[in-house]
Structures are given as structure tokens and as C-alpha cells.
Amino acid sequence: MPERFSEVLRAAIRQVHEQANGAAYIGKLLSGELALADFAELATQHYFLYTALEEVADSMRHDPVVGPFVIDGLRRVPALAEDLDFLLGPHWATTIEPNAATKNYCQRLRTVARRWPGGFVAHHYTRYLGDIAGGQVIRAKLRTQHGITGAGAKFYAFDTIGNTVLFRRHYRTLLDSTGWDELERAQVIAETKYAFALNEAVFAELDRDLAG
Ligand code: HEM
């Protein structure tokens, strides 16, 4: 039986995943050095990124490759809007800005999606599967470090996708049934690794701008 692409992809990102987890910013987040204002800044960058991700997803809903990945329960922008409302107050929408790394990330996502559905899936996978798994660690930090469990942490609460273990299993079957040939699989892996690099660049900029 041929190897499942989802497993190949998961193995292929192991190293970049470890590298991203080793980012100085993530270290500070995990060790409790981030003020609530810093979490608000992270949510701000997420807001711009997910707006791009979900606008593109909506526009590709009928694409045969992307369509099955456009799952309404994943949608994060409404949760982020609630989080920002709580973290920054009612005027957040007119005051927040993406940082340079986030702008670059959004631009790449939009450009890739225009010419290549598989490239968009690489970005979709990197963010959503990452948030469903690793995001739970950040959610726990918001709770233990800042006492936030509802608004302010909704981005990390995937209440609308059912059991997350089953969801991740379903997502893997989607990755396995795209029909990509070897070349395209390699290209999707490369774009996924690039997505990790784009995330690291966002962390690096957030780290430089820490409120502390
Ligand atoms: C606080 C830092 C992080 C922690 C603690 C963390 C933790 C985890 C854990 C526990 C898993 C599940 C692994 C498994 O099922 O084998 C996972 C998967 C994943 N993470 Fe992270 N992660 C972090 C940061 C990131 C970042 C920054 C990204 C990229 C933006 C990311 C992307 C992913 C992806 C795409 C998966 C799914 C892999 C797969 O099952 O195919 N993670 N992470």
C-alpha cells in the first residue's frame, strides 16, 4: 500500500515544527513572560492572517481540491473579533495594524492561492492543524497566566468541529485523497515548510515588539 501523504507531510515538517517551537517568542510565551497586551498583539496578527485565509477559502469553495477543506466549523475570524473586542475594547477594528511579517505572509497566501490550489492547502494545513493541536497549549497559558477562558481565548476553542481527534483524522483523509502526484506532493511539502518560515518571521517581529 502506498504511504499516506498525510503521514509523509507530517514527517516532513517535524524539523521545521521543532524549529518554530524553539522560537524565542514561543519560549517567552510558554514560560509566562507575555503580558496580556502581548497576547492582544498576537491575536491582532492572527486576525489579519485569518481574514486572508478565510476570504481565500470562501472564494475557492467550489474548487475541486480546496472545496473539501473549506469547513465552516474551522472559521476563526468571528472568534478573533470577539477576542479583540475583549482584549482591546470596542474600537479595535479601527486601531489595529498588521506587522510587516504578517503583511508578507498574507500576500504570499493570496498569491499562491491564485495560481495553485495545492499551495493554498499547504497554508490551510499549517495554520488550522497547528492551532487545533499546539494552540491548545497557548490556550492553557492564557488560562493559567491571565485567567482567561472565554472571550480573549475563543480563537483557540474549536467547539464547532466536534471531537478534535476525529476531526484531525478526517483532515488527514482529505489530504490523502487530493489526487496529487509525486511532484505536486513535493511542492505542497515545500510550501508547507515555507509557511512555517513565514510564521517564524511573524514570531520574530512580535518578539522585537514585545510590550514588556
Ligand atoms: C506553542 C508552540 C507549539 C506547540 C506546543 C505545538 C504542539 C503541537 C502538537 C502537540 C501537535 C500534535 C502532534 C501530533 O499529533 O503528532 C502539533 C501538530 C502540528 N503543529 Fe504544532 N505546536 C506549536 C507550534 C506550532 C506552530 C508555530 C505551527 C505552525 C504555524 C504548528 C503547526 C503544526 C501542524 C501543522 C501540526 C499538525 C501536524 C500533523 O499532525 O500533521 N505548530 N503541534
UniProtKB/TrEMBL annotation:
CDD domains: HemeO (cd19165). The keyword Plastid does not apply. It comes from the Bacteria. InterPro entries: Haem_Oase, Haem_Oase-like, Haem_Oase-like_multi-hlx. Keywords: Heme, Iron, Metal-binding. The keyword Iron applies. SUPFAM superfamilies: Heme oxygenase-like. Pfam families: Heme_oxygenase. This is Biliverdin-producing heme oxygenase.
